[in-house]
Write a structure and sequence with these properties.
By secondary structure, this protein is mainly beta. The chain contains one helix and 14 strands. Strands 1, 2, 4, 5, 7, 10, 11, 12 and 14 form a nine-stranded antiparallel β-sheet that branches. A five-stranded antiparallel β-sheet has the order 3-6-13-8-9, with no helix packed on it. β11 and β12 form a beta hairpin. The termini are far apart. About 10% of the residues have low confidence.
Length: 199
């Protein structure tokens, strides 16, 4: 009997060790670990696929929208962006099927945005960035904190936004891919190591 019980416990422990549901690291929940997109819904026609531990898109326009909603949180994500790609992270989205910079906060990734004030490092129509950092052709890290009306954005260790805005309190967040005005095939976006911690 003891031998059977020990075997059952061993099998249960092994199953828990490989369960994909609750991946946590240091209090953060890993939403994309390079293997699957189980925590996201696809919206739009972007050609998302997983390559070399990153989720990549380079055609179409669309979003990866989290299945859960978040209010106060710290979000961390690494991204690589090619020339002409229009991307970003939308947070506290109020309509996950029609994401815009007016029904959520768009933390932008678009070095060549015509209106430079709201280019990479800014929150579109909420917080300008000056000077604008460069992100094209390299791996970058966004750290975004939303606590009540306080929003902060840190790009590659440098704070680009620190603003109070209370328009949106809660909602899913979304990773964007949208081609720039030239619809350039080189405008790819890659995401990896996406994790969030509730505050």
């Amino acid at each position: 009997m003891k031998r059977v019980l020990a075997g059952v416990l061993l099998v249960a422990a092994a199953a828990l060790a490989y369960a994909p549901a609750a991946l946590t690291q240091g209090g953060s929940t890993v939403l994309f670990d390079g293997k699957n997109l189980d925590n996201f819904n696809k919206v739009g026609d972007a050609n998302w696929r997983i390559e070399d531990g990153a989720v990549v898109a380079d055609r179409g326009n669309g979003f990866l929208v989290t299945k859960n909603e978040y209010g106060d949180f710290q979000l961390r994500a690494e991204f690589w962006v090619g020339p002409d790609a229009n991307s970003g992270i939308f947070i506290r989205a109020t309509d996950p099927q029609k994401l815009t910079a007016t029904n959520g906060y768009e933390v932008n990734i678009w070095d060549d945005r015509p209106e430079k004030d709201y280019a990479t490092g800014a929150i579109v129509n909420v917080a300008k960035v000056d000077p604008m950092p460069k992100s094209v052709g390299q791996w970058n890290t966004y750290e975004i904190t939303a606590k009540g009306s306080q929003l902060t954005v840190v790009l590659n260790g440098v704070q680009t936004v620190d603003v109070q805005d209370g328009k949106h309190a809660e909602g899913p967040f979304a990773l964007q891919f949208g081609n720039g005005p030239k619809d350039a095939p080189g405008g790819a976006i890659k995401w990896r190591k996406v994790q969030i911690r509730s505050l």
